[in-house]
Each structure stands twice: as C-alpha cells, then as structure tokens.
Amino acid sequence: MNILIGIVKTIIMLGILVIIHEGGHFLIAKLCKIKVNEFSVRLW
What we know:
By secondary structure, the chain is an all-alpha fold. It has one domain. It is about 70% helix and about 0% strand. The longest helix is centred in the middle third of the chain and has 30 residues, at about 1-30. It is elongated and about 50 Å long.
C-alpha cells in the first residue's frame, strides 16, 4: 500500500512541476511580447 501511495504522490508532484515549468514558458513569452494563442496542459 505504501508503494502505491508513493507512486501517486510522485505523479502528482511531477504534474505540478510540469504545470509550473510550462507556465514559466508562457510568462516569459508574454513578457517578451510573443503572441501566445493557447496555453494548455493535457492530462492524458
């Protein structure tokens, strides 16, 4: 059971890190006045 909880926690943390990382790309593009048509993070 502990292994399953660890796997779920890892997946959640990686998801959060990916969203923050991609949000950084979005923010820098906006600051550099680059047109951004869409921002999305697909779950699957």
